[in-house]
Predict the 3D structure of the following.
Amino acid sequence: MKTNDAFILLEELTEEDFQASYQSGVFATWRCMAACLPYLKQTHGTVINMTSSAGILGLVKTGAYGSNKEAIRGLTRIAAHEWGPFGITVNVLNPAMWTETFRLYRKQFPDSAQKLMDTIPLGDLGDPELHCGSLCVFLAAPEGKYMTGMTFDLDGGASMRA
């Protein structure tokens, strides 16, 4: 870690930082989607990608992370257009949920974690099963099959736009 925080200024990022972020993010997402495509075509399936509002909001110190998440959103919209004729829906969720990763982050960087929590109008992170899982189930169900290419912000209002 180059700083006393988990996030790094754009000017301090290295090509290796970007490579690691993109390999585990948009490239991994694309590989998985491509591998699943034959099965998705057979079943008129549903793809639900996970990203973050860091890219949408252009958050400071998220150059590699945020731009990677925006790349996944772009990939999602392109797939929604290209795969729609096969009956495949493709959407993306931006969840801000209580995860083990955030719990560890909060222990390591309590001030930064609190700053993040302070940006959430509802005052708390979401429950992964209740808030994120239930939306995934809906999107995969017949009732959700008319939504494609959409971004769903599950962040307690943190990314609401005027």
User: Anything to note?
Assistant: Helices lie at 15-24, 26-43, 53-57, 63-83, 100-108, 110-118, 128-140. The CA atoms of residues 41 and 85 lie 9 Å apart.
